[in-house]
Amino acid sequence: MRLHWLLLQLKSPRPYLMMVGFIMFFGMWYLTVEVWQLPRFREMPGITKVFQEWTSPNPVFGLSLYTEEYYKHIWVSTWRVIQAFFLATLIGVPIGLFLGWSPRFRQYIFPIFEMLRPIPVLAWVPLAIVMFIATESSVIFLTFLASFFATTLNTMLGAESIDESFPRAAYCLGANKRQVFWHVIVPGAMPYIFTGLQISIGVAWFSLVAAEIVAGQFGLGYVINTSYTMVSYPTIVIGMITLGIVGYTTSALVRILGERLMQWRERERAIGGSR
Amino acid sequence: MSTVAAQRVVGGPQNASRGAIRIEDVVKIYDSDGSAVMAVDHCSIDIKAGEICMIVGPSGCGKTTLLNAIAGFHDITSGRILLDDEVLCGPGKPKAEPGPDRVVVFQNGGLFPWKTNLENVTFGLLMQGKMSKASVTEKALSMMADAGLTGVEQNYPGEVSSGMRRRIEIVRALMTDPKVLLLDEPYRALDSLTKSVMHEALLEIYYKNKVTIFFITHDLEEAIFLGHRVAVMTSRPCRPKKFLDIDIPHPRDYSVLTSKRFRELLEETGEAVHEEALKAFATGEKEG
Amino acid sequence: MVTSQKAMSDLGFGIGASRENKGLKMRSRRRNILGMAFGRGIAAIFLFLMIWEIGAQSKVWIKWETFEWLRNLLPALGLKPNYLPWIGAVPAPTEVVAAWAQLLGNLSYWKSWYLSFLRVMAGFLAAMIIGIPFGLLLAVNRIAYGINFPVFEMLRPIPPLAWVPAAIIFWPTQELSIAFVTFLGAFYTIVINVLGGARSIDVRFFQAARSMGSNSWDIFWRIILPGTMPSIVVGAVVGMGIAWEVVVAAEMISGGGSAIGDSAGGGLGFFIWNSYTGGSYERVVVGMISIGIAGYISSELLRALGARLMSWRRTR
Predict the structure, then answer these.
(1) Mean pLDDT across the stretch C187-205?
(2) Does B84 touch chain C (CB under 8 A)?
(3) In this complex, which of C143, C169, C207 lies closest to A4 when CB atoms are compared?
(4) What is the fold, at CATH topology level, of the domain defined by A68-264?
(5) Predicted local confidence at residue A14, as pLDDT
(6) CB contact under 8 A, C276 and A41
């Protein structure tokens, strides 16, 4: 068995295998729920029911690709994530860069940061409700928190991971501290920052859903929760699928933005790597 | 790439007036993890202005520490380092300030991957702000052309060969008109064919610009080919074990490699270097 | 370090003379530096607590004569004149500490610790037990990868909490549904990390092993498994953090199971929610800090365990 050769081939799985996987997955869903009606499974919404509901112009439970409300919920959730994500990036990236760059700053700020970070975002819900009386702000605050910690931490790690030679070379050439920060640290940390941003937006969606379930009106999390309480089960799955799609899209957008901003990386990769 | 003609102006110690380095009794002790490690042990070296001084020694013996001390990246525990009679670091000032009078060319390459080659080369002077952008660019283009590097200005360092990257880095270093060029095994990662081309290129650049060169290497042939003087260092902690004046006249080209004098010098230093290499091998030193 | 000492004595260099009193000077300098860093952190934390205390107590001092200007200013900004915005609404550190001291003797408080830990462990261990082999399988077997990975990637963007209603419908007990959702959260992270780790094992290790005559099983146990260890540990630590997030969320959402007696019944998440609905905000903050500590302890234990298992990785 040519194990290591196999591993190298991991980069391109065959499309027909992918089809097999999907068929198996959806097939199992269909069979267990609707055909065999296995004990726990039969309560679940079946795949045909979900699909029908999703694509019907007149959905039984009120939400489908054709209803306006559907897109309203999507928009509400997405807009919340965008606001929180932008705030978190705006505040988190500079703080992260300073944490990685200035030992003094880190000595002051990092302990507080590390004290607050282990507290799960959802544990903040009651405080958020109490602090921000409007539910909209509290939901955005919670989403912001999660995103902020992820972004700041990754940015800090990025600033720390820059090869020592680069700032040293800059100093040699006559740059002062401020110039080294802007011309070396910031661009040098960019790849790590963008990896962090992709994680951060995933985390943002995670917290958003939780916050919406607990304390929101409108939004995909809210949809999922109320569909459950109102026993409109197919809508739950519609909500889940939609979340998946939107989450994936936003993450991809961040990644593409990163690739655009860091042309030098793409060109380097095209040549086949350096060093 | 032209070979050096005999009628070209000869660079060398007697023509330069600045860049003399004096390392006086320098000691460097690292104190990480609580156990002290002596990297440099009472090292004293006198480098004349405009001289190419090659520092040869086994891996991990502390040569880089010495270079870092001159450049201002590390502090020293005791002793002094002077540049043209000005104290860089010493008692009361254990760490020198890094500056454009002593520029380093790094082992793994110090070109900024996120800037184009031209942006890299113009970086130093633009940061110092003493010249206008137009004149800096002009100087950069002409120096790059001098070094045979036309056509790659708008590329990123990641897109050109490593040999070219080294040359660009040296040009970048020379842009700021430094007194000293500090090279830390810059050709270590290159194959020997590229290396010999690099050597000639470096010499050409040297003949055009009067700088003192402090060059760390573990390659004895490289040292004898390039240098005015070779200092053989002991394994850790390092101190100069043997000095050798290379009396092969500049300008030099690759024919020097097969000359009788070259072989003689190689024999003379070879034994000393080999001895230190064996010691380093026996103690299992990690490479610097 | 040991080799260097040996080298020094071998070559006859004495340490004593060269070090003189520089050694002492350096040692005290180092302790000083440690003190500075530590002191700064403490100072910042202290400042943070001070601001919190003063801000939270604003409901008290804002009523004093001297702050009438503030009471007039706030409504002009559209805020209530009862306390400073945002921070005035939260309980003060001193109140929190008092509530906590009270709770330390309360058995049900510790029971909620226990319950939350149990749930985190259940979901996390399930994720490790299923996730690591699954990830390794996908890494070594091209066919398994081709079939399973696309489905995996399709499901991954769906936040674990979105699965809660479905899990409640499906699983017979609440505990199982919480465990399932926790499992999902950690599972994705662990598999992704295992895959990444297995892929980045240098090809030359395989080539070396083959040239020495190893068969495929050997390669698996001696190269792939140890080589993936660092990524497994990273995945585990991150997954543990996610598990805590999910458990707390699930406890708050689905009611936390049996509420025995007062509010400190079904896990720390439930404790927080109940304290909130019961109006005792100090207990809410106590709960928050407790979970923070619990999560921190679990992550550090994992990290220490991981470091133990990977002692070969110690570099210079």
Answers:
(1) 81
(2) no
(3) C207
(4) MetI-like fold (1.10.3720)
(5) 67
(6) no
On chain B, the residues whose CB falls within 8 A of the CB of C17 are none
Low-confidence ranges of chain A (pLDDT < 50): 1, 7, 9-12, 273-275
Q: Hey, what CATH class is C95-313 in?
A: mainly alpha
Q: Side chain identity at B65, as an amino acid letter?
A: T
The tally of CA atoms less than 13 A away on the side-chain side of residue C251 is: 34
CB contact under 8 A, A248 and C157: yes
Q: What is the pTM of this model?
A: 0.80
Interface test with chain C among B25, B35, B38, by most C beta carbons within 10 Å: B38
Q: Which of B38, B77, B285 sits opposite C8 (nearest CB)?
A: B38
Query: For chain A, what are the domain ranges?
Result: 13-44, 68-264
Higher pLDDT, C262 or B159: B159
Where exactly are the structural domains of chain C?
Answer: 2-89, 95-313
Closest-CA residue in chain C for A3? C140
Domain ranges of chain B: 13-101+179-283, 115-177
Provide the ipTM: 0.83
Residue C194 has a pLDDT of 87
Taking CB atoms and an 8 Å limit, are A120 and C40 in contact across chains? no
Task: Identify the pLDDT of residue A157.
Answer: 86
Alpha carbon distance, N-terminus to C-terminus of chain B: 33
* Gap between the Cα atoms of A47 and A26, Å rounded: 8
pLDDT at C183: 93
- CATH C-level class of B13-101+179-283: alpha beta
Q: According to the model, what pLDDT value does residue B34 have?
A: 64
Contact B106 A174 (CB under 8 A): no
